[in-house]
Specification:
The protein is mainly α and 311 residues long. It has 16 helices and two strands.
């Protein structure tokens, strides 16, 4: 019964990662880190090596399953893909019609996640302290990158997958946002909604390639510089809030592939000047409520995970 409960929790964590990765500006890696599965996820990804391939080619399925930690990866991956296919349209609707509550929710989620992660650092020194603002500045710089307009060919789709997946497992840096910068966010989202198998297969191949390479780099830093890495990752998460700040003034627009006008360049503004600048209500009380829901959700997930670990 305990094992079934753990699998269900892993599935739900996967759904959380998938939901976060759909939103430009939010990283599924943040969810993995705060729910205490980040390092195991990296180790499981790194287990896909030549030895694992040999076991598979020799049809030693059980040994292969144990080698790749399949009991952990399967419910997590199922949760991620369930969330992506089930919620992609819903989250797109929320982004377009209820952006302030949605961004406020994720602000609360990311802020409390960063605090919880900092709490896990056992030894603080000058370098660990400096890594936090460094991570925040780097993430802020990434969120200020200009948008590109790359062609929709196979190689660019493959490269976009490789780049995006690196961000998806890096807390605080959103894979969806990097897809937006590369001009491929709507292209991939449309492929998901239209079930375009060719585009999704090429994109997935790029993701797999980037994942296998980048996960080994992160794992090495976590093993050799655990505290410094956690501090840097927490800084990434805080710096990324610049992208998902709920109150924005649109400076310029772009025309999407479906012919809809959407924001291109935005400027963060304070809630009390939002109405003056945009003519729209700031929905401050709703934003605070959504923020608190994000905080409570993360704390609840952490405590639920701790209760399962104690059993």
């Amino acid at each position: 019964m305990k094992r079934i409960g753990e699998r269900i929790i892993l599935f739900l964590k996967g759904m959380g990662m998938g939901s976060a990765d759909i939103v430009p500006g939010v990283s599924g890696g943040s969810i993995a880190l705060v729910t205490k599965i980040y390092e195991e996820l990296l180790e499981s990804i790194n287990s896909f090596d030549l030895d694992a391939l040999k076991l598979l080619l020799q049809f030693k399925v059980i040994d292969f399953w144990k080698k790749i930690n399949g009991g952990f990866l399967l419910p997590l991956v199922l949760g991620i893909f369930t969330s992506i296919f089930a919620f992609s349209k819903g989250i797109t609707f929320l982004i377009e019609h209820f952006p302030i509550p949605l961004w406020s929710f994720f602000c609360g989620l990311i802020l409390i996640s960063a605090i919880i992660i900092l709490r896990d650092i056992k030894r603080w020194n000058l370098m660990a302290i400096l890594m936090f603002p460094l991570g925040a500045v780097l993430a802020y710089f990434v969120t200020e990158l200009p948008l590109m307009a790359l062609p929709n060919n196979i190689w660019i789709t493959f490269l976009s997958g490789a780049i995006a997946i690196c961000a998806m497992i890096l807390p605080g840096i959103s894979g969806s946002f990097l897809l937006l910068i590369l001009g491929k966010y709507e292209f991939i989202l449309m492929a998901v909604n239209d079930r375009n198998i060719l585009v999704l297969a090429v994109f997935a191949l790029g993701c797999i390639t980037g994942l296998l390479l980048f996960s080994r780099i992160i794992s090495w830093f976590l093993k050799n510089y655990h505290g410094l890495t956690l501090s840097l990752l927490s800084g990434f998460m805080i710096g990324s809030i610049n992208k998902i700040w709920p109150w924005k003034k649109v400076l310029t627009y772009r025309i999407s592939s479906s012919g809809i006008q959407k924001p291109l360049l935005t400027e963060n503004i304070l809630p009390h000047v939002y109405f003056t600048e945009t003519g729209e209500e700031p929905a401050f009380l709703i934003a605070i409520l959504a923020f608190l829901i994000g905080v409570v959700l993360v704390v609840g997930i952490e405590r639920l995970a701790q209760s399962f670990n104690k059993e």
